[in-house]
Amino acid sequence: MAYLTLHREKLRQNFDFLKGMFEQHEVSWGVVSKLLCGNRKFLGELINLGVHEIHDSRISNLAKIKEINPNVQTVYIKPVSKRNIGKMVKYADVSLNSELTTIRWISEEAQKQGKTHKIIIMVETGDLREGVMGDHLVDFYAQIFELPNIEVIGLGTNLNCLNGVMPSTDKLIQLSLYKQIIELKFNKQIPWVSAGTSVTIPLMLHKQLPKGVNHFRVGETLYFGVDLFEEKVIEGMHGDVFELYAEIIEMQEKPLLPTGILAANPQGETAEIDESLYGRTSYRAILDIGLLDVDPKYLIPEDGEFEILGASSDMLILNLGENPKKYQVGDTVKFGLKYMGALGILNSSYVDKVVK
Question: What are the beta bridge partners of residue 286?
């Protein structure tokens, strides 16, 4: 059976690297746990690192975090739907918001629950996902200021997640200026400029982060050690916190080309025929994992000598050529994972999860 491993010590070393960097720059930060898809075992490993603030986009995951350690500050990181506001206020101490109507509903619910709910107002800075337009921000804040049981603790932004717009010093300075304008206008202190995500870390590493930015929300770089500007592992961090192992369930020498009338497969793909390969064979391995679990394009084979040919819902097909490593049925094949690959695997109930 396929299984995913989390390397505890490598995760800790990545965490310690980031913790030291943020402390050096006097920046607060929280860990984004949505990649873990609510897996209690892995959430426990995260909390055992000494994480005091965890962000997630699923309320059920925040509920599990509160069950494990109610003292962890939980942050809901996408606009909440009206029907989920009650649960969100119950399990999230903080939420990211960009809709005035929604914040009014949150205020009403917080009053019912006898809580003060903290919010970070998200500001649009160019990537065109969630965020209030800057020209509307002062009026927006003026109306929030009147709402009971709501405390604004930050202005935030999100970049790179939709259209790929990268963070820049100028964009982050602009967000810091919005904070100063609101503080002066309303004589209120806003503690955080939450403009940092994993994609912003390279600005800090290259000393290009404006001083006003003092809060980060970090997931991908913690789990994969990656510099998202240069798409490489940061020196001193680990890119292999997660590893996937899949078992060979068939090994046969077969023709390189299919035979018969070709039509689209269930994925809508039609095989391309290279006539120069007629009559040739290779060893093919079938692994016990498929599209239900992960898109093959997000897998990184440890053994660079074989080729991933494709996948069906429950099986992954490899071309091993002459099989120089002498793989056999029952052997396991190891893969590294890109972020979206790990997300698919962690969201799959069909793949075991193991801590090493």
Answer: 250, 317
| pLDDT tens for each residue of 265-278 | 667 676 676 665 66
Indicate the length of the chain as a whole number: 356
- Helical axes 8-24 vs 40-48, angle rounded to 10°: 40
Q: Could you tell me which residues come within 8 angstroms of residue 251 by beta carbon, excluding any fewer than 6 positions away?
A: 283, 284, 285, 286, 323, 327, 328, 329
pLDDT at residue number 279:
64
- CA nearest neighbour of 88 among 118, 125, 123: 118
What is the identity of the amino acid at 321? G
pTM of the predicted protein model: 0.93
CA distances from 275 to 156, 256, 279, 288, 306 (A): 56, 10, 9, 30, 21
Q: Write out the catalytic residue numbers.
A: 34
Q: Could you read off the pLDDT of 115-139 as tens digits, one per residue?
A: 999 999 999 999 999 999 999 999 9
**3-state secondary structure at position 340:** helix
342 Cβ contact partners less than 8 Å away, ≥ 6 residues apart: 4, 35, 223, 224, 242, 298
Query: Tens digits of per-residue pLDDT, 149-198?
Result: 999 999 999 999 988 999 999 999 999 999 999 999 999 999 999 988 99
Nearest to 118 by CA among 141, 72, 149: 149
Instruction: Look at the alpha carbons of 146, 150, 156, 161 in this order and tell me if their dihedral is positive or negative.
Output: negative
Neighbours of 16 (CB within 10 A): 14
User: Do 159 and 166 touch, CB atoms closer than 8 A?
Assistant: yes
Rounded-to-integer distance, Cα 188 and Cα 186, Å: 5
Rounded CA gap, 56 and 75, in Å?
A: 6
Mean pLDDT of the chain: 94
Find, among 36, 7, 39, the residue nearest to 219 by Cα: 36
Instruction: Name, in order, each residue with C-beta under 8 angstroms of 77's C-beta and a sequence gap of 6 or more.
Output: 32, 34, 55, 56, 57, 95, 96, 217
Q: Output the DSSP codes for 108-155.
A: HHHHHHT-PEEEEEEB--SS-SS-B-GGGHHHHHHHHTT-TTEEEEEE
29-to-52, 173, 192, 196, 276 alpha-carbon distances in Å? 9, 19, 10, 9, 56
DSSP summary character for residue 236: T
